[in-house]
């Protein structure tokens, strides 16, 4: 996501400084027109607004808190990864002690039609909102710190719940000897719940290119773990979410952990079909 965002900003004429721990990513960013630095401190010293896009919760925590130590008062960190609402509140307090603003701003989709979910009221992004609008077709302000992360986790819950139900339905269709492509056509024509079904059908129709475009199982498991923590902190008990989280967390310990998430459908082949009386 970081590369896509950087590309959109460069194309809009924005001067972008960048850093990544991986040389290959830094090289790619350089080709996009980003002024690349070898150290985070170097990039931070030349930036008053820092946008982060990171793959793990540990990386978000490490980088954001380090930026809090590196950036001068008046700077702003806009965090676009998926993380826990509680961390947003922690980061807001920690960075705020040094006069640095933190805004949780997870994203959905890709530039230029990306949606940004801002954990703050209108104006929370400051002047950076006009710049980021070059990459985001929609910017939604959710009022309070952590609300952006919370909304993103709820989106993930709905999206992957729909996917898993669709995958189970098509697994059942295949087991029953139905014509799977025709079943997909029938379902697509008779239901509005397309997101999960569309992803599941990529697997059953052997669309390798589409499958490869999806996030790995480990990323989904991470999001499910974060959502479970959010629900637990709120005292919210959801049996349907518990089953969804259990499935993806178990998948993350299997051979498909680092593969695109539609490939978890392989695990469904292990379901037992019990003959009725």
From TrEMBL:
Q: Which UniProt keywords apply?
A: NAD, Oxidoreductase
InterPro entries with a match to the protein in the record: 6-PGluconate_DH-like_C_sf (IPR008927), 6PGD_dom2 (IPR013328), 6PGDH_NADP-bd (IPR006115), HIBADH-like_NADP-bd (IPR029154), HIBADH-related (IPR015815), NAD(P)-bd_dom_sf (IPR036291)
Molecular functions per Gene Ontology? NAD binding; NADP binding; oxidoreductase activity
Where the record annotates domain 3-hydroxyisobutyrate dehydrogenase-like NAD-binding, the positions are 146-265
Q: Which residues form the 6-phosphogluconate dehydrogenase NADP-binding domain?
A: 1-143
Which sites are catalytic?
A: 152
* Domain of life per record: Bacteria
Q: Which Gene3D superfamilies match?
A: N-(1-d-carboxylethyl)-l-norvaline Dehydrogenase, domain 2, NAD(P)-binding Rossmann-like Domain
Recorded family membership: Belongs to the HIBADH-related family.
State what protein this is by name.
3-hydroxyisobutyrate dehydrogenase
């Amino acid at each position: 996501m970081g590369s896509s965002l950087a590309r959109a900003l460069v194309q809009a004429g924005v001067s972008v400084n960048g850093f990544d721990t991986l040389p290959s990513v830094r090289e790619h960013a350089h080709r996009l027109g980003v002024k690349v630095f070898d150290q985070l401190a170097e990039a931070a010293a030349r930036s008053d607004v820092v946008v982060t896009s990171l793959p793990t919760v540990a990386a978000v925590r490490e980088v954001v808190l380090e930026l809090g130590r590196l950036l001068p008062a008046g700077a702003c960190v806009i965090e676009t990864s998926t993380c826990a609402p509680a961390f947003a509140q922690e980061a807001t307090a920690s960075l705020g002690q040094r006069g640095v603003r933190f805004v949780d701003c997870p994203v959905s989709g890709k530039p230029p039609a990306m949606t940004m979910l801002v954990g703050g009221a209108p104006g929370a992004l400051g002047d950076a909102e006009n710049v980021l609008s070059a990459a985001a077709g929609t910017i939604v302000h959710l009022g309070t710190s952590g609300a952006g992360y919370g909304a993103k986790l709820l989106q993930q819950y709905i999206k992957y719940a729909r996917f898993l139900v669709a995958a189970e339905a098509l697994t059942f269709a295949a087991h029953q000897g139905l014509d799977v492509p025709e079943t997909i056509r029938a379902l697509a024509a008779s239901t509005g719940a397309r997101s999960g079904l569309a992803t599941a059908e990529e697997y059953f129709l052997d669309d390798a290119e589409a499958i490869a475009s999806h996030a790995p199982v480990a990323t989904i498991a991470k999001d499910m773990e974060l959502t479970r923590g959010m629900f637990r902190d709120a005292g919210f008990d959801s049996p349907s979410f518990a089953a969804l989280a259990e499935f993806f967390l178990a998948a993350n310990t299997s051979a498909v952990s680092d593969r695109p998430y539609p490939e978890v459908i392989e695990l469904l082949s292990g379901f037992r079909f019990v003959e009725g009386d």
